[in-house]
Amino acid sequence: MTAAPLTGAERASRVKLMIFDVDGVLTDGSLMFTAEGDHMKSFNSMDGHGLKLLREAGIETAIITGRRSDIVERRAQELRISHLHQGAGDKAAVFVELLRATGLSADACGYMGDDWPDLAVLTRCGFAAAPANAHPDVIARAHWVSEARGGYGAVREVCDTILRAQHRYEALLAAACGMHNT
User: Has residue 181 been placed in a domain?
Assistant: First the structure.
């Protein structure tokens, strides 16, 4: 008799490190350039707060992105993201490096991605998440899909899902309301 496959919530309950792609996940995927060739990115503040809540709950965060950007570096510093890997041509190799650096197993990691370059990590981690507007092949392989689109609350939604699955959401909410459990 084989065990039933784990649900998305069961997988989320095991996450100790949550990894995110940038374009299409932390942003809406638009690439904006100035006339001078500088590029801009727009981040959702609620997504950022979700990342801070993960950190408060003791869950590490990481970014693995194929592009390189000073903007992403600044945002990662602002949010105190534990591990930032930019210019990752081989995201699977970076994932293996992250596992070595943290001492975690792939089952203890989650990843949120939106397109084919994310599949190499998404299919190896314990909790695979995708924003609502991810490519259909990514959605087909995800354990959990947000209702929100990338850059519009999808990251906050997955953060809340992880916190609820780990029974930490209510305590964080109570603290935000100024109520402390005694």
Answer: no
